[in-house]
Amino acid sequence: MDLYSAGHRRGVVCAPHFSAVEDGRAVLADGGNALEAMVAMAATIAAVYPHMNHLGGDGFWLIHEPSGRVRAIMAAGPAGYEARPELYRESDETIPPRGPLAALTVPGAVGGWMLALEVARAHGGKLPLTLLLSPAVGHARNGYKVTRSQNRLTATYLAELSGVHGFAATFLLDGKTPEVGATLKQEKLAGTLAHIADAGLDDFYRGDVGREIAVDLERLGSPVTRDDLKQYAATLAEPLRLTLPAGALYNTDAPTQGVVALMILALFERLGVTTAEGFDHVHLLVEATKRALRVRDRAVTDPYRLPQPLERYLDERFIAGEAMKIDRRKAAPWVLREGESDTVWMGAADASGLVVSYIQSLYWEFGSGLVLPRTGLLMQNRGASFSLEAGALNLLAPGRLPFHTLNPALAVLGNGRIMAYGCMGGDGQPQTQSALFTRHVNFRQPLADAIDRPRWVLGHTWGNPRTTLRLEPRFDGHLIEALGAAGHDVEVLDEPYSDVMGHAGAVVLHANGACEGAHDPRADGGAAGV
Asked: Are 23 and 15 in contact, with CB atoms under 8 Å apart?
């Protein structure tokens, strides 16, 4: 599978798994639009990359429409009706990260697919749902090959996941971590996908599949009820917007950390960096990240409970004040905010002007680990991000939306290009977005090079929490020394292309209608078009 693909006149897709890329490309070849291609890819990626996402998770979309309008689909599920703080205080005083009590939020991703297909039909989409989901059904029923990342993450978390209901039967072979290249099947998931392909996606919440999900959740001890599923619907929303000299940048509003990604780029622009890959480029993006993450941790929560609108933190005066607090030569102290994330980002564009940035997630690797016996759903553990502490910004309450690290990005550039881009990886998502954007847009590096170049991440991505500034070893040694001398707690990784940096990708629709896409050599996918 090629990591870079360009010159396409009908459309292009990119994803972290080659099967999702091929299935999205096939939809474009069949006359489908970018949104239809993305729904097919979203189903496939759950079937072949289950350590990163599944139907039991959430999703967020940014969609550029041919008219020029940019809209978001917010497909995050709220805490279940029975998810009260008292339930957890009665047990262990904490929200467990794995098992039925971790599966405390409604899975929202399929609701996002529903809404995306409504938008797709408004823009000429005509392909039947059965065609869009049939590749995923085949992957789940006939088997898929275990990737390097699934093998590694299964081994890493085997001890805490193997005892969770359904995990061993679904994701282990003879009770052991499957080797790279081994074949696994998700036959129950295949049945669920085939059923909703025929009955319609609404069945997932309000039909036979919804009933089966609810029965299993109740029997296994999850606080999500049938009524929670029946009442769920994804929503269309206006995204956050930032205007820079390069163009208009978009990201998702609360409960996501989209404001962080935009703040980093606003601060970087204010600081006036003029050269790529040197000390100023890396140091000032890292320092901007610190300022933005501090804002996130005191401001981002359920959108109905925000202390104040997040647009405030993109205001020019606020950005100017934050930029003044950044030392151009010295690193500010950094304290870890705990959290994990397990996610896929995918992009699609077509010549009509539809450009899609989409992210789908379970939160931690394999989410809660809970696989429902009737439907084969792997449930997310996004609710583990809630707090039980009275007065906390993200206090657990029935019906409340959890904080999300997920944040797809999209830019409408002044030269007529439209760029959808993103990355998985917790706190690393906005950092990688800023590296990719500045390299490609500010400093005009080719798209594939901007993704390939060595990356850094401050704090947590996925795996064990860190407070260090981790760098891939391909950085110039003098730059690494300069960052350490400035006070950064530098940790140089062993792998030249490290999973710690997440899996980034981007698609670009050019003003002349040509499409290009690129994906990360750190992942298992690529880009393709027609």
From this structure: no
pLDDT of 339 higher than 70: no
Q: Is residue 132 part of a domain?
A: yes
- Has residue 60 been placed in a domain? no
- pTM for this prediction: 0.96
Q: Which residues contact 355 (CB under 8 A, 6 or more apart)?
A: 34, 63, 64, 347, 348, 349, 410, 418, 419, 420, 507, 509
- Domain range for 91 is 20-51+74-236+361-385
pLDDT tens for 84-125 read 999 998 766 789 999 999 999 999 999 999 999 999 999 999
User: In the chain, how many domains are there?
Assistant: 1
Q: Based on the residue annotation, tell me whether 170 is a catalytic residue of this protein.
A: no
* Residue-wise pLDDT tens digits, 259-282: 999 999 999 999 999 999 999 999
Q: Which residue among the candidates 289, 343, 405, 461 is catalytic per the annotation?
A: 343
Phi, psi values for residue 149, rounded to 5°? -70, -40
Residue 424 inside a domain? The answer is no
Half-sphere exposure at residue 71, Cβ-oriented, CA atoms within 13 angstroms = 16
Cα three-residue angle 185-191-196, rounded to 5 degrees:
135
